[in-house]
Amino acid sequence: MTDKRLELTRRKLLAGVGGVGLASAGAGLGTTAYLNDTESFEGNSLTAGALNMLVSVDIHDKSPELPDPVVDSTDEAADDTADGNEITVTVDDMKPGDWFVLDWHVEIDGNPGYVQVTSVDEDYSNAEGANPEAETDTAAPGDLGAALLTTIWGSTDSTAGSDRGGLQDLDETTDHNDTWLSGYETPDLDGVTTSGAHYTTLNEAHSEYLDGVVLSDSSGTPIEVGSVSDYADVHYYQLFELPPEVGNEIQGDSVTFTLQFDAEQVRNNDAPFGGS
């Protein structure tokens, strides 16, 4: 006869041996690691570079008694982002022979950048104003943008006095004959000077800047604007003048334009704004 007490005892023993095996295996997991160590370095950080542009415009000079043009800037604060700085200018109450010069000032902080200037098409408008009896062309749009000459200059000679005579280095974007002038010359009614330069009308300048123009030096090389570049900041001077011979057609008319300034970093950028 089988001894059931012995059989039960064997089962218990086997179960007990299995439990000991599992415990031993578990204990082994905590005692077989290789030599190791862990160090920590606190306070580490990576900071991305920044680029911040500020654009402003001032009336540099103007003919006597001419009212200041209306300047409306959407982004002039120092903490504005690099792209999308827009400034709108409205010109009205100009009489034949009137002129004024705007000083456009572009700064970039953080890293040097290229700057592109674009004339915003939907914001460009010629308004037909009051129509006195002497004016024969009373149909919209107004005629001021077609008659008002505007030229871009790279600098002004402070020793020449605060008038148009001090303007230097005519930008080729506003000289249709590609004649580089070192100083201002009085144009005729069509905007042509004695040396052959053709100052553009405001309508022509708007068309020229519709697709954007990158600020460049006299050789056509894009300017690097920024505190660690060759140009800490940039000034451009825009002359507006209404020839004395323009006549009555511009009476009561006004013109409004908006310039948008965009910036891109210089570093790792061989073709700013998608150029070649």
Describe the protein.
With 276 residues, the protein is of the alpha+beta class. 13% of the residues lie in helices and 29% in strands. It contains 3 helices and 12 strands. The strands form 2 sheets. Strands 1, 4, 7, 8, 9 and 11 form a 6-stranded antiparallel sheet that branches. Strands 2, 3, 5, 6, 10 and 12 form a 6-stranded antiparallel sheet that branches.
Could you give the count of β-strands? 12
- Please state the average pLDDT score: 77
Rg, rounded, reads: 36 Å
Structural class: alpha+beta
Q: What's a concise summary of this model?
A:
The protein is built from 3 helices and 12 strands; from the N terminus they run αββββββαβββαβββ. With 276 residues, it is an alpha+beta fold.
Keywords:
276 residues; alpha+beta; 6-stranded antiparallel sheet; 12 strands; 13% helix; 29% strand
Layout of helices and strands:
Layout lengths: L3 H26 L22 E11 L7 E4 L11 E7 L7 E11 L3 E7 L5 E3 L16 H4 L1 E8 L10 E4 L29 E2 H7 L4 E2 L18 E9 L12 E12 L11
Antiparallel strand pairs: 1-4, 2-3, 3-12, 4-11, 5-10, 5-12, 6-12, 7-8, 7-9, 7-11
